[in-house]
Amino acid sequence: MLGRCLPAVAVPLLLGPASLVLADLAGVHRFDLTDLSALRTRFAPAPDSGAPWALIAGRAGSTAVGAVVSLPLFFGEEPGRQGHLLPRPAPPGAPLALAGTGAAFALWHTPILVLGGRYPGVHWAPAVPTMPVGTVLPVPVLAWPRIASGSVYPVVLAHAFVSTAGVRLPWLLGDASLPPDPVHAGPTGWTSWLVTGAFTAFLALSGRLRTDALIAEEAAGAARGRG
């Protein structure tokens, strides 16, 4: 199980830095790998220079604790979406199942959007229709370990770490002169859409998103239950 969980966590976390590289190239995010000034400004304003290692260690620890503490929440979400909805046999199969789970994901986060939790400073009217793009695209990436392993546990672990570490990454690596804007950089930004969409296309074209085995397993389980 550990061998299945590690890629599930590693790949989504690697997509985060990749999207920040794209954001930097597009001029909507700026790296500061010397002083980590955005991190200082956001979490511990100080005039010092150089990497604040104590602050980094503290944020890494709090991120890990936050991911672990949030696991019960994602055990409530993912068994329903990836465990129940994804294996449902419905034409045209995987695309509809993945889109359906993504739509459910978006609806789940609507109250947070209305309260300004995902796009701070952005009115809820444009934020609400924007969110489905950022929720549908990651679903295939999370579905990949679910399909490969037949278990929801890797998905739960990946979701927990992405929701905690992924949101903080732009601030960890950013420059205070251009504060991270979630519309452009980070898990909900358009640069993340492009990177995640490209990786999703790779998964689809390589046949890694076929749900046939999950559907067959679900049907076999239902047959055993009736028997």
UniProtKB/TrEMBL annotation:
The chain crosses the membrane at residues 53-75, 96-116, 122-144, 151-173, 185-205. Pfam families: Rce1-like. The keyword Transmembrane helix applies. Residues 1-23 form the signal peptide. GO terms for molecular function: endopeptidase activity. Keywords: Membrane, Signal, Transmembrane, Transmembrane helix. Residues 65-163 form the CAAX prenyl protease 2/Lysostaphin resistance protein A-like domain. One of its GO terms (biological process) is CAAX-box protein maturation. InterPro entries: MmRce1-like, Rce1/LyrA-like_dom. This is CAAX prenyl protease 2/Lysostaphin resistance protein A-like domain-containing protein. It comes from Nocardiopsis composta. The lineage of its organism: Bacteria, Bacillati, Actinomycetota, Actinomycetes, Streptosporangiales.
